[in-house]
Write a structure and sequence with these properties.
This protein is α+β, with helices and mostly antiparallel strands and about 90 residues long. It has 4 helices and 3 strands.
């Protein structure tokens, strides 16, 4: 997966972004940090191992993650998933 795809996900989910040696994004809802997602700058595309970690950090199933990347899953849908999982 390309880093541009991850950046698009960060923007879609309105993650607060900070870039140091890694790219960090925090999901903040009602001024409360819910979860953190990060990946290394590195070169080239992100390997599947890293994509699996990002999917886990977002607390998504494989199907939901694919929907997030392909765009059918909206920000509101994502928050609903987190609510069902008891994270919100």
């Amino acid at each position: 997966m390309k880093k541009a795809d991850i950046n698009r996900i960060f923007n879609k989910l309105s993650l607060q972004i900070r870039s140091t040696g890694h790219n960090y994004g925090w999901l903040t809802v009602s001024d409360k940090r819910i979860l953190r997602v990060h990946y290394s700058h590195g070169k080239g595309d992100l390997p599947n191992k890293i994509m699996h970690k990002i999917r886990g950090q977002l607390k998504l199933s494989e199907k939901d993650f694919k929907d997030l990347v392909a765009c059918p899953l909206t920000y509101e849908d994502y928050l609903d998933i987190l609510k069902r999982k008891g994270l919100l």
